[in-house]
Design brief:
The chain is mainly alpha-helical and 202 residues long. It has helices at 2-34, 36-39, 93-109, 135-140, 142-148, 153-163, 179-190, and strands at residues 43-46, 49-53, 132-133, 164-165, 176-178. It folds into two domains: 1-40; 42-195, no CATH class. Strand 1 and strand 2 (49-53) form a beta hairpin. It starts with a helix and ends in a 12-residue tail after the last helix.
């Protein structure tokens, strides 16, 4: 019996050391060396202070800035500690009511905009933390953002188009706009540089 336990214990200790310590340290060290920005959480740093992450959506409600996708995380939206979806099916009345309420909020925020509302502005993502919207969703908001910031629509539209990220490797996914980064760029455009570090999350 002991002749069988000894090699088993040695193998357990060896594999624990290899897969539980050495391998994670090797992967972490390689990622910090090759991809330091991503390995540290893709943080957005301004004036020496982390103000956001490129990977985590924020719940913007200030009508002066671009809004991202709605979030169904609990207990509040955009809760990075509780990634989840609403799990409401397309025939669920609660989903219909939620979409109607989001459509109403968008129309009330910009009464003069009669353009069709892109679907990603009224439906949640699977994670509830998606920082991206479609280019159409960002462009839909240009008139409101430009008007409330006293900026020309052409300048705000150009800001959005410059923020469009292409398909990954030219093949995967769809073109998208990171709302977190877009709002930081908007802040630099609309306000003096001295105020660029102000958090626009409302």
């Amino acid at each position: 019996m002991f002749t069988q336990l000894r090699p088993a214990a040695v193998m357990l200790a060896l594999m624990t050391l290899l897969t539980g310590a050495l391998y994670p340290l090797l992967v972490t060290g390689a990622s910090l060396l090759l991809f330091p920005h991503q390995a540290r959480g893709s943080l957005v740093v301004e004036e020496g202070r982390a103000v956001a992450s490129e990977l985590i959506g924020q719940c913007f409600s200030d009508p002066r800035v671009f809004w991202g996708r709605p979030s169904a995380t609990t207990p509040n939206g955009c809760n990075a500690a509780s990634s989840n979806a609403s799990n409401l099916g397309p025939t669920n009345p609660a989903l219909v009511d939620a979409v109607k309420a989001r459509v109403r909020a968008l129309r009330e925020a910009d009464p003069g905009n009669a353009a069709p509302i892109p679907i990603d502005l009224v439906t949640t993502s699977a994670s509830g933390l998606d920082p991206h919207v479609s280019p159409a969703a960002a462009l839909f908001q240009v008139p409101r953002v430009a008007r409330l910031n006293l900026l020309e629509e052409a300048r705000v539209r150009a800001l959005v188009l410059a923020a469009v990220e292409p398909r990954t490797f030219g093949l995967l996914g769809e073109p998208r706009v990171n709302v977190v980064l877009l709002n930081r760029a908007l802040q630099r455009l609309a306000h003096p540089p001295a105020h660029a570090g102000t958090n626009m999350r409302q």
